[in-house]
Each structure stands twice: as structure tokens, then as C-alpha cells.
Amino acid sequence: MRARRERIGPADVGLPESARRRTPGLRREELAVLAGVSTTWYAYVEQGRDVRPSDQVLAAIADTLRLGPGERAHLRALAEGAAGQRRSVSRAGSRPPVVETVAPEVPALVAPAPAYVTGATADVLVWNAAAAEFFPGLVRRRDADRPNLARWVFLDPEARHVLVDWESVAQSVLARLRTNAGRHPGDERFRRLAAELRAGSAEADAWWPRYDIAGHRTGSKRVRHPSRGELTLGHAAFTVADAPEQVLVVYASP
Fold first, then answer.
1. What whole-number distance in Å separates Cα of residue 39 and Cα of residue 7?
2. Where is this region: Disordered (predicted)?
3. Which terminus of the chain has a smaller tally of CB atoms within 10 A, N or C?
4. Is residue 230 within a helix (H) or strand (E), and if so which, with residue range?
5. Local confidence band at 141 (pLDDT 50, 70, 90 cut-offs)
6. Helix, strand or coil for residue 238?
7. Which of 23, 18, 22 is nearest to 6 (CA)?
8. What global pTM score does this model have?
């Protein structure tokens, strides 16, 4: 909410400009007036406190922030999930570590075409030989860490060669990671990964604070194959029913 508030200038909503402004965009009190709520209450919502905003209030805030459909759904998910996230925190104030696993039935569905399954933090949980062929640096790792799509895209120079349209792909990957991070406030996995990406990539450092969000979608991707040159691959994404944050991505056979 803060990131979106800072994108709206006073002139955009009919307010006078002021030379005294020390922060970009609208002030909290200005946003609160435009949305029809108290400044203190709006501040609590923006800070993620347990104030349980109604659908009407969320809609008013979303209208004022000029959120798109995906951003509105994300705001609602954050509001609905906040109380549950707080209840899941242990008395010590930390959550137990999460290790994602893939149901044994899922790998059996991975077709001969390039395919892989990603988890909440963009870890690549399972992949087939075709994915290793088309995205070699992604899955052929020499260290003990799981392959991670975001880490490969931003920190491995080979990704910029393999992905013809690297910038748009990278922005999409980071936006999906940002979306999942918003659903897991306080989760150390996301904090560590974001810090690593921002430390190693100027683009990730610049884009992360923008709070762009996105979901998986069908589309196409241009890649450079080691021996076949530049190819355009259509792809589709499928959510695993028993683990909604795990996504099976399948590319069309080239």
C-alpha cells in the first residue's frame, strides 16, 4: 500500500503541490481523507495491524490507490490472511522452517517437453531432462542448494544469454516472488532470498521496493538453445491442487 501511495502525486487527485513535501506521492493523511477513513486507522491498515478492514473500506482504499484487478485481489488476500498468519507465529515469535516437497504423483505428469515445478520461493522442486537441456544453468548446480528460478535469473550471467527478453522475464519472476512474499509476512525464507537478490543484482535492488505483483500465466518465451539457436516456446502454468503455491510450468515441444 505504501508503494502504491507513493506513486500517486497530489496533482493526480486534485490536491495542490507543496515544496515542503519530503516523501514522494501522497501523505497517509491525504490518502485517508480521499478513502473516507481516519488517518490513524489507515496507518494501522498500511502497517499490517489487526484492524480487520471491511470489504467496503478495502474497495475505497483500492479505488484511491488506483489498483488494478490483480492488485485488488492481492490486497484482499493480504487482509484475509493477516490474522491467520499472526496466529501461526509461535510464542517465541518465529515460524518453524518450511521445506517444500512434491507429491509423488506430480513428477509423473511432467511431459517430454520442457517442464518443471516451482515452489513458493521460486525453488525448482522437480524438472525433466528437456528442462535441463533448455535451461541448463537453472537446474545443473554444483552446490547443495535447490535450484531457484529467481536466483538463476538475477544472479547467473548465463540467464541473460538464455532468456532473449531477459528484462521482462526477470520483472515477471520478481513480481511473482513479491506476491508470494506478501502472503507470508515474517517468513525468513523470503527475507533471505530478497536480500541475496538485491545484493547481487542492481535490477532486483531497484525493482523490489516497487512492490510489483503478478501471478503465473500462459504465454511464450524466447530462448537461445545451445545448438538450435533462438526459439520461441509457448508455455502454460498449472497449480498443484494439494499445494496451491506449487506451480507446474510446461513448455510446448519445440
1. 19
2. 1-22
3. C
4. strand 229-240
5. low
6. strand
7. 23
8. 0.70
